[in-house]
């Protein structure tokens, strides 16, 4: 903490109104200040290098790359970075990926602004902030539900409505191989058909439209 004891915050969100609102909440506190704002992952990395904020608030959906990728990039050169995800995504996979990348807190947009302030203070103090809906989502993860990178590729194409033949062509693999991947995906997601797989994937954050 610096600037006369204030916690310095970097805000990363691609919606200007959202950034403005979050900044207003933080600036209203006597123990916090916003040092920079950006709407892209590349901007987040650049501004983190420039300002070395105490806390970074990171959205997951950004126009150039995902917030998870931005977290990984920042922590490559600043492993001590204290990053809190602030997003609309509530799926257990989104949460898992963000925490695995190094986020220390996870906030859902729409929570009371007191939760944002509480999260900043807890993470700045060296703790973690995972509200009840987030911990419940994590607890629902199936231990054997991990998908391989190829299975994720197949699932993403399923979500886009592609047939087995179209998936095979897109990934340059045999249609029989696609069928095998789909069977594994259904088993790992604990569903019985492709439609349920798509719904579950979107709910959990395994894929996004």
UniProtKB/TrEMBL annotation:
SMART domains: HTH_LUXR, REC
Modified residues (4-aspartylphosphate): 59
Domain Response regulatory: 8-124
Annotated ranges, domain HTH luxR-type: 140-205
UniProt keywords, alphabetically: DNA-binding, Phosphoprotein
An example Gene Ontology biological process: phosphorelay signal transduction system
Gene3D superfamilies in the cross-refs: 3.40.50.2300
Pfam family, one: Response_reg
SUPFAM superfamilies, alphabetized: C-terminal effector domain of the bipartite response regulators (SSF46894), CheY-like (SSF52172)
Top-level division of the source organism's lineage: Bacteria
GO molecular function, one term: DNA binding
PANTHER family the UniProt entry points to: TWO-COMPONENT RESPONSE REGULATOR
Protein name: DNA-binding NarL/FixJ family response regulator
Species name: Silvibacterium bohemicum
